[in-house]
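Protein 1 of 2
SEQ + STRUCT:
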Amino acid sequence: MDALEIGTLAVPGARLHYEVRGAGPLLLLIPGGNSDAAVFEPLAAVLSADHRVVSYDPRGYSRTALDGPPTDQRIEVHADDAYRLLDHLAAADEPAQVFGSCAGGIVALELAMRHPSRVRSVVSHEPPTMELLPDAARYRELVDDAHEVFRREGVAAALRKLQPLFGGRPAPALPEAHDNSAFFLAHVLRPSTRFVPDLAALAAVADRVVVAGGHGSRTHVIHQPALVLAKRLGHELAEFPGGHVGYAKHPVEFAGRLVDVLAAAPRDDSLRTTTRGLRPCAS
């Protein structure tokens, strides 16, 4: 399905490219890794049958240009970008359902904590909160090694260094508007895997948060932080079709599971009366 609406929203330090499909309850899709809105096109086409689906290119990726030179990215800044996009597209009293995968899953959690008035429910799919793992130092070293290899040898060599996180296999080829691998390795990989969610603040919105993982990635390192995070929130992990990128590989089955999980998520209206608000963040 072609996008019904394509737009650009100016945010501090960038201009967000966004796409809107369908009509119905608002559902925001937040990509992770080096992906942009293109990775969600098959999933959005299915979901748009009964949702107003919003996807976008994160700042610095593909069609979302930065206003200045690239710098290391902050999860808080990306969460505020998502908030501004929802504020632009949604009615004043319309909280959104949110799905984010990989680093997008961390952004989705931060969005719920910082701006609960804008979020009805969140599915965070395999967020790479590696610092919550008991052997976090091991994976911090692996990520640092990949970053240094990128600086010395380039993208392909660095991505090979990350294969142990994904069962020892190369990352699957995914649809994308542009190749964002270099920006991801230079400015996103380390900040996202080092980010530690505010677990006390997350507990305050835990009733509307679902932590998810892929059936096909259960033995992969990248799956383990979701298990730990779900346990810390007192939740069972929600299992989804496919692996780490099941949303791209199995869009029909994944969409059906996502709709079911979002429909079952509790909706605590009392939490919408508070917000942590926008805080100044460097871009």
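Protein 2 of 2
SEQ + STRUCT:
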Amino acid sequence: MKIINFSESNSILNQYVSEIRNVEVQNDRLRFRRNLERIGEIMAYEMSKTFTYSVKDIQTPLGIAKVSTPDNQLVISTILRAGLPFHQGFLSYFDSAENAFVSAYRKYKDTLKFDIHVEYLASPRIAGKTLIITDPMLATGGSMELSYQAMLTKGKPSEIHVACIIASQAAVDFIASKFPEDRTTIWCAAIDPEIDSHSYIVPGLGDAGDLAYGEKE
């Protein structure tokens, strides 16, 4: 299984990650959402380099141009609600992709213990297609794994790309143990060392959904 950690190299993506982490910038929700989107756009570009390509004949006003374009049938899946701007970043580049949406949430038993529930799934068939599952924050990996299992009711994808902005090392290890090793790539803007007793990523950035859309009751 291939794991891509963009923070290990220098690019403008790191600037956007620094801004979504920064408590002095986070109060600007528009900027926060746009930065999630920008990170998705950059990841989509880098991910596109791994696709299968073939040369097509393109009719221009003056002749035929041969252009190498991707052949993958893409399905972009996102975990609601914080994933929406990140998802849009991918969709801006993969504009012909099909889309899937999963509602997964933590149901707390007490302040520390919780179960993860998948409540809603809207998805096309994914059999033989390239599945991209996006979620900005990968804390434990539980929501991602359950969402993937829900997606499998729509078929078996040919390859899987797990895309997140900030992940804990524990979550990356968990996903690596649960997803098909030969068909999965994990893409992270940054991998943080730990999660706290509430299963929040440290240093992380806080609650991405609240920062993007406001606090919920």
